[in-house]
């Protein structure tokens, strides 16, 4: 009789835990949907209501579509949809289904938001002002990208292309450098289509976008952070950091002086965006984990994405 009660109690506990996890997943999905919808609206308005009416362009897939639109008389949203789908297919072929899941949602939703704002025909500025347009385009687009990265998602754009180039051709270069080179090529190409001044305004927009992404995700903090993770899921967390985030991770055994229990502490240096992804994964694997985020002014070493120790002297 006692064993039966224990089994019933154990079953109730498991059901309660499953129900709690289900509710948490629903809350997370609702939060993701809310912030991604805001991000898509901001990004669409930035493109349709600020950039295009003032004859501007930018890097990324947006810049590519702006160039193509100069030769193909189709709406921006349709061309963007086509470019997103092409990149999505290429990403699946070269990067696998894991990357597909990250970018599928925004491949569908973001071009749809652009289409809606095209029909609404809303514009931010009363009169044409290229400098103001470049600044506010960068602000709105930066907030859009920052919200997307903060929620752990990606656009179907040049970031996927950069990941493919890194995997296939330039494994020793950081993703940020490859992405910067791609955006530079796109903006340089736009100079031949729209003129050098427009290309220079596009550079201003890209700088503002980069800064706004950092502000949205981490306020005014540094671009390098150190994560210290105390978790019971050492192997799973380490595998995710090494295989998915592609960062090195170190570990050490520590003792809680109050309980005298033994724990494993993982340490990893990464970008703010990557730290968000790691924290989300740790929360998924170990609800009782402790994650500390420490700002880092600079890092010297030969590791990818950090300052070269020999050059930075």
Automatic annotation (TrEMBL):
Compartment(s) of residence: Cell membrane
Keywords attached to this entry: Cell membrane, Membrane, Transmembrane, Transmembrane helix
The name this protein goes by in its record: YitT family protein
Record membrane topology: Multi-pass membrane protein
Ranges for domain DUF2179: 247-301
Main location: membrane
Coiled coil: none
Transmembrane segments: 28-52, 78-97, 104-124, 130-153, 174-194
């Amino acid at each position: 009789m006692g064993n039966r009660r224990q089994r019933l109690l154990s079953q109730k506990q498991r059901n309660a835990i499953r129900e709690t996890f289900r509710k948490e997943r629903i809350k997370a999905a609702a939060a993701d949907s809310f912030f991604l919808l805001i991000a898509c609206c901001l990004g669409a308005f930035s493109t349709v209501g600020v950039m295009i009416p003032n004859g501007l362009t930018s890097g990324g897939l947006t810049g590519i579509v702006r160039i193509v639109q100069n030769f193909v008389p189709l709406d921006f949203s349709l061309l963007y949809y086509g470019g997103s789908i092409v990149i999505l297919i290429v990403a699946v072929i070269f990067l696998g289904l894991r990357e597909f899941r990250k970018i599928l949602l925004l491949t569908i939703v973001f071009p749809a938001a652009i289409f809606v704002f095209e029909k609404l025909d809303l514009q931010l500025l009363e009169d044409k002002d290229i400098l103001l347009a470049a600044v506010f385009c960068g602000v709105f687009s930066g907030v859009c990208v920052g919200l997307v990265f903060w929620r752990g998602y990606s656009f179907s754009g040049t970031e996927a292309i950069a990941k493919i180039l890194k995997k296939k051709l330039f494994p020793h270069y950081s993703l940020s450098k490859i992405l910067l080179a791609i955006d530079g090529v796109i903006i340089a190409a736009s100079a031949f289509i729209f003129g050098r001044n427009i290309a220079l305004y596009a550079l201003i927009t890209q700088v503002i976008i980069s800064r706004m992404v950092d502000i949205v995700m981490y306020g005014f903090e540094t671009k390098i952070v150190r994560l210290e993770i105390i978790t019971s899921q050492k192997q799973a967390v380490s595998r995710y950091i090494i295989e998915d985030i592609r960062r090195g991770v170190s570990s050490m055994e520590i003792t809680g002086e109050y309980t005298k229990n033994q724990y494993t502490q993982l340490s990893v240096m990464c970008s703010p965006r990557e730290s968000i992804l790691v924290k989300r994964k740790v929360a998924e694997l170990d609800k009782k984990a402790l994650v500390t985020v420490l700002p880092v002014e600079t890092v010297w070493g030969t590791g990818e994405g950090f300052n070269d120790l020999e050059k930075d002297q």
